Amino acid sequence: MKHAREVQPVCAHHRLLQAYDMREIDSEQPRDLFRLKYVVRLAAVTHTARRRAGPGGSVLEVGCSQANAGLILAEAGLTVLAVDLLPEALTYARAKYERGPFQVAVGSAEALPVHSGCFDCVLLGEILEHCADPSVIVAEAFRTLRPGGHLLVTTPNGCYGRSRLPLYQPGIVDEQLRDRQFGPEGADHLFAFTPHSLRQLLHEAGLGAVRVSYLSSALFSNRLGGLKRLVPAGALQALARSLNRLPIMGRRFSPTLFAVAQKTGS
Fold it and tell me: What is the CATH number of the domain that holds 195?
């Protein structure tokens, strides 16, 4: 895909997304901690999606925003549909497109504009925490998956030591949150998940083989600014991955949960 600098913004939302890209995937500072958190998450999602969808598989990216994951997967030969509520997000993603089977569609995560059973893999990246009733989004993702297909979810870790978000309570919907869901620029997190509550949400939707792991690390913190100048970015990422494999360390020191689940049966 094109570098964010190659995109000519035509509206305020384009400029916002371009600014995110310039701080994240296209940052000129490889040791920038904000960038490291983003690229670790993006690499984990795209690597897993390629393995789970298989060569030439189909992927649905829900609430895609810049669609960086979808664009990367399309370039790898997967057939991608990127969906977002905002048409401006999709025109920005199309402006970054270079090659591969990649399409976009305007639509809500709560009522996806696709037929049932179409996709080998569905991505829900940083979206469940913005919805008053995440079970609706998970149910829609489940509907669009083929039997044997996989759902990939990333969301803030409510057990992270610095998290101040209320914890998601499975089966409880606060109707007052509906006025705040999908807030401006996606900045309004309503709650955070624990590994247990995320696993329960996916199981209740009918998904099986649920695996929840941890992404990013407290190592990617501005409080450790001196460390990032001493340690190469690749080594810092490798150390973070090692710490995340330790359940106690991952639970308390990793800000992001990563769940992989499968639609079993026919």
Answer: 3.40.50.150
pTM across the whole model: 0.88
In a domain, residue 2? The reply is no
Helices (H), 152-232: 195-204, 225-230
Distance between CA atoms of 238 and 241, rounded to whole angstroms?
Answer: 5
Residue ranges making up the domain that contains 200: 8-262
Q: What is the pLDDT of residues 227-238, one digit of tens each?
A: 555 556 666 666
Pairing label, strands 79-84, 119-125 = unpaired
Phi, psi of 42 (to 5 degrees): -60, -40
Number of domains present in the structure of the chain: 1
pLDDT, tens digit (0-9, with 9 covering 90-100), for 92-149? 999 999 999 999 999 999 999 999 999 999 999 999 999 989 999 999 999 999 999 9
DSSP string, 60-123: EEET-TT-HHHHHHHHTT-EEEEEES-HHHHHHHHHH--SSSEEEEE-BTTB-SS-TT-EEEEE
